[in-house]
Design goal:
The chain has 324 residues and is mostly helical. The chain has a domain of 215 residues. 76% of the residues lie in helices and 0% in strands. Helix 2 crosses helix 13 and helix 3 crosses helix 12.
């Protein structure tokens, strides 16, 4: 523990200085990496315990649109709109999660239910085009620099907001991973029947982690919408976004604290590379490659990039000499 304090402190200091050194374009990428890391880590809360959701785009979309719609139509500050979006996402998670966990719908059946949820939310956003702008998207009403509206022309403000959120979600993950409920969730992921026989309230624990994941994802969606100042069902909801979330968390390593962050960096670099290489000539390139790479990672690197690096580091570490 003490050995990790110095590197962590140096890393944090570097992150605090970074926005004053990076060019504007790379600062934009860094902000997106932090926001998406926040969202991917939220998905990993469920994925690492065997709750595979392919519908987290629904929670992200709800968080993004609720906050933006309350601001555009009623002038409600995002400081209230973001919690409202989180609350609605939690309600949605309970509506889907309770019957699924009550009826013991698990594995690929649970994944299909969440997939349908993500698509239903995306289709609802498109259908309500008179309010949401439909497939053309919508833009939150701009007022310039404003803490009330969470709008900042200077991107460094968003960088520090995203950095704080990223550190908070890592702290939450640490607490979950080192608390008593971690063992219960691990047992549930291995064998629900055995976990229930051991006295674990399976449904309550699964609902708890699902609600936490949904709320954090909704907050990430709201902050992302505030930053890019544009919402579209294709970019904040639907199957494409859900697939991106799953791919990034698995590719980076959902069992490692920094795995989703590595996954965010990978997806952003991939997306920007494809945009520069193909422009608008290959619209579905990102989702197609996400799907292919997801299959390859699941088969050959199930613990992700960080997991492979940790395993290689463990192999290279000198064996401890036995005490004489």
């Amino acid at each position: 523990m003490s050995r990790a304090i110095i590197p962590s402190g140096v890393g944090l200091a570097a992150l605090l200085v970074l926005p004053f050194l990076l060019p504007d374009y790379f600062l934009h990428i860094a902000i997106q990496v932090l926001i998406w890391s926040f969202i991917y880590t939220a998905w990993a809360f469920m994925g690492r315990f065997g709750l595979v959701s392919i519908g987290h785009g629904a929670f992200m979309g709800v968080g993004a649109y609720v906050s933006a719609l309350l601001w555009n139509y009623y002038g409600v500050t995002p400081w209230l709109g973001i919690p409202a979006g989180m609350a609605l996402s939690v309600l949605l998670a309970l509506v889907i999660g309770y019957p699924c966990f009550r009826l013991r719908i698990i594995g690929h059946y649970f994944a299909l239910v969440t997939l349908a949820l993500g698509q239903v939310v995306a289709l609802f956003i498109v259908a309500a085009r008179d309010v949401t702008g439909g497939s053309l998207g919508m833009t939150p009403r701009a007022v310039g620099f404003s803490w009330y509206a969470l709008q900042f022309p200077d991107r460094r403000y968003f960088y520090f907001i995203a950095l704080v959120l990223w550190l908070v979600v890592l702290a939450i993950r640490y607490r979950v991973s080192h608390g008593m409920r971690h063992a219960a969730l691990e047992a549930i992921g291995e064998d629900e029947t055995a976990a229930a026989a051991a006295g674990i309230d399976v449904m309550r624990e699964k609902l708890r982690v699902t609600v936490i994941s949904a709320a954090i994802t909704a907050m990430g969606g709201s902050i992302y919408a505030q930053y890019v100042n544009y919402l579209n069902p294709e970019t904040v909801s639907g199957v494409g976004v859900s697939l991106q979330i799953v791919f990034a968390a698995i590719a980076g390593g959902m069992y490692s604290a920094l795995g989703p962050t590595v996954g965010a960096l990978l997806t952003l670099v991939l997306t920007e590379g494809l945009r520069i290489a193909f422009g608008t000539s290959f619209i579905g390139a990102a989702n197609t490659i996400y799907g292919i790479l997801l299959i390859l990672f699941i088969i050959f690197m199930p613990r992700g990039i960080v997991g492979v690096m940790e395993r290689l580091a463990a192999r290279r570490a000198p064996a401890a000499t036995p005490a004489e």
